[in-house]
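Task card 7
Instruction: Convert sequence to structure tokens.
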Amino acid sequence: MRERELIVYEKNYWRSFIHVKDISRSIIFAIENFEKMNGEIYNVGSEKLCLTKEDVALKIKNYVDFHLKFAEFGKDPDKRNYKVSFKKIKSLGFNIKFDLDYGIKEMIKAFQFIELKDDYFNYKVFK
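Output:
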């Protein structure tokens, strides 16, 4: 984002997002509900945070002015494309507290202090 340019490949691919604070909360929730959750597998998050790469890029653009390009050809080496259900953990009473807007605002603040290194994949590819 420091270069003020983002190229998005396969914009219709779905991703699931969650804030680290909600991950931390889910671990505490699992400990407190060990008897109910023991031996089971749970997806942690919210259907509200299952978004396409296009949705996320446009949301970021609401906060940061940059050139956004949706590539019409070429492929993303990351082939993940999925929507996830969180009904199982919600049925036990766990819900997220932090939405995508909150996370974007935090990342914008953090990037003021983060120096990008050459070992970041996207930075190398698009430099």
